[in-house]
């Protein structure tokens, strides 16, 4: 699938450290999840190279922060335009190593690029403040300065967007970055980095340290333990987030964590049913259910329960599953065998405890899984408690608003939530009562660059995107002027 790139120069397999492509002494294989075929062998780096990248980033920091915000913004805008220009190649690389349908990959490239555009604009608006004095001999001034070398550890489900969402605000603020991309999807990361080089981002300001699963742990340890690294941003599982937070404790590092979710999707009796079904389809089956904001548990109220599950099953059954490069395919493969095994475990557990399979329920060939709808699901089933991260929609019946709010909040997670209702009073009541960082009301899609993305409880710390997305990359400094 990678033979047909318009610009073969985007296919990088070496890591990027201090502006140089580094081959390392070992390689690791990257596979196409749809076919199982090997796509490339990528530099497999470890602790020593991570140390090197951090030291190089630190040296590059002074020059980068000394540029005006406007100059940094101009370079970021070049990078943004390059992503747009090379969108088709980037999308092809992404589909090849990640599996998502090409149309979704194109969508992600546009979404990824939008963070660069947004933060290029925001770079110029990192305002300080003056505070009215309480002492006639003093003046109080607040400035914001780049925090320093930033580290980013990113996942495979959005191989480019999760990088730009972290890197763009860091660079905009005047910080250099060392990225450790997911071992499943390093080619997307390296192609994006190649475009950063072409945009004129100076050597050392953006570094990509690639590593396999084992090496990633090593690189992660170096990033966390480093005194030079002042901020770590991670998107991935809550389990790994906890490990990183623990490893960062000795250096009191600032952390942005975007972790797992267990999104409830609630359909009230007064909802527009077709719209709710449409929203559930988008929220559940996008990226084959492998997003942290995917509807994980669907609650349908008594009065519309049967009608809702029937419509949802009909739509899910009609989804076209296949290789993401084929025209019209709406659902690609899952990322690996563990992902398939988890989905199978959740379905078997639900069926064993009395759930009805309305459609799907089985693995097709390889890593493809049928779009699945389960009815008569109960809160004690695994699929109600854990993030399934696959194309399974478990639907639970509820009776009252109070009951469903309690059910929805009964989790240690708090990332995205959704509900459908046309009653304005209920919209405010439920919107305020859900303990989540994001609430989609009569919509199944909430993420854009302009809004704050993030979770509460064990779903993470901090917000990415929006003007708030810059906060983690700057330190607030207070200047107290005396002897006026
Ligand atoms: P997922 O379940 O989505 O694969 P993970 O949390 O396992 O999510 O992985 C997300 C990112 O974290 C990947 O880049 C992976 O290499 C990295 N990672 C996994 N375990 C560790 C670790 N112990 N230390 C540092 N990075 C890790």
UniProtKB/TrEMBL annotation:
GO terms under biological process: gamma-aminobutyric acid catabolic process
Domain of life: Bacteria
Residues at the catalytic site: 258
Tagged with keyword Aminoacyl-tRNA synthetase: no
Keywords: Oxidoreductase
Keyword Cell inner membrane: no
Any one cellular-component term (Gene Ontology): cytosol
GO molecular-function term, one example from the UniProt record: succinate-semialdehyde dehydrogenase (NAD+) activity
Pfam entry (one): Aldedh
Domain Aldehyde dehydrogenase: 21-478
Family: Belongs to the aldehyde dehydrogenase family.
Name of the protein in question: Succinate semialdehyde dehydrogenase
Organism from which the protein derives: Caldimonas thermodepolymerans
